[in-house]
Hints:
Layout: H1 20-40, H2 47-54, H3 58-64, H4 68-91, H5 97-114, H6 116-125, H7 133-140, H8 144-156, H9 164-183, H10 188-206
Amino acid sequence: xxxxxxxxxxxxxxxxxxxxxxxDKRQAILDTALLLFTxxxxxxxxTSLIAKEAGVATGTLFHYFKTKEExxxxxxxxxxxxxxxxxSEDAGTNGTCMEKLDNIGMAFAKWGLENxxxxxxxxxxxxxxxxxxxxxxxxxxxxxxxxxxxxxxIKEGWIRNYPPEVIISIVSSGLTSAILAAAREKAPEKxxxxxxxxxxxxLHGIIKE
Length: 209
């Protein structure tokens, strides 16, 4: 298990067609929406409150996001893209399929502890009707590398022969719950213990005896 957990970091974004000021406003809206959606839920978070807390006019918010649904979808896709990009780096490292999947699991756990609100958001809204089917599919596309690694594990005979998408769904749900449980522990060693036991239990369920 990798050790040393950092404070929550904001994702980096690159919008070549925007000025820095525009990018800052857009990101402020997204950061504020993340905070409020995870604290108050979708219906309990009016766009007027998001704009107020982000320090922008309501009209400015609607300039970037035409509806609250578009805002929540954008936030969902940004988080999926950020985590998918991070984890794909571990999938591209040298090592066996099992080692790569272990590295991916550890990297996701570390990222989750650094970004607990993003994990909480994904748990709340991953299967929400506020996220369109098209957005779901686009979000999943960021993890095609994981689908490929699981297919390799099945072919090698050490992962149970179930549809990769089912395995990914079960493992990601389990890891998300484990990360949130670990985040409630203040001491790094206790976080480490919770994640180690949880990951061992989750992986035991997909490994072929």
